[in-house]
Amino acid sequence: MFATKTLFEKTLLHHLLQEFQVRYRFKYVLPKIHEIMLEGLKFDVSGLSTKIRNRLLSGAYESHEKKMCCDYLSPSDSVLEIGGAIGFIGLLCQKKLGIKNYACFEANPKTYEILKRNYELNGVTPRVWNMALAHADGHVDLEVGSDFWENSICYDNAAKNGVKTVRVPAGTLDTLLGMVGNKVNTLIIDIEGAEQFIDFQRIPEEISKIIIELHPGVMGQEVMYNIVATLIGLGFRVAREENDTFVFLRK
Does 211 reside within a domain? Predict the structure, then answer.
């Protein structure tokens, strides 16, 4: 009986200590970190939440996409990234993998400015547009009340009055490809459910690599499987799949 009580007390003390360390880190340590290094690259995190700073420092941020880019992309690829976020994947591809032809789109105006700042910190001139991918050209309302990795044009319209949004330019995949100008053979897509608006049947023949995070929680499992089936029908194969992030390849 005494030994059990002692074990309980030790376990409780351990949990209390862990909780204190976490609280201390988020209240006193993370707010003071304004710039970090990831994969040898500099990132300005002064405008990001402590939650994002912690995720970045843990090494878990975009871990699947990072590995997939390193394993399947080469310096000769011409890449269009849709959903550039803070620039991590773009800088990794250009500075670490040596890809010269790289363009990206980021919908959130605030995140777009952070991306440009991070490119500047790493001596890279970005080819980036502040624009969302959508089902038609024009403008859309982007949800911006959460952390940048949750920003989406897909949300419950019934609750729209309670959602913080900003109106941003939008275009179809055809439009975005046309703005890039040069031919693209690789797509990297992470747009929080808006991938459901891509007409995959219109993907140019020269595109042979797609790294895409699908979001069944936003668009439903059926829509996700339809996207996978459509790409397979177009001659792509699933080279890798991890946590709803896919690599599609075709000859």
Answer: yes
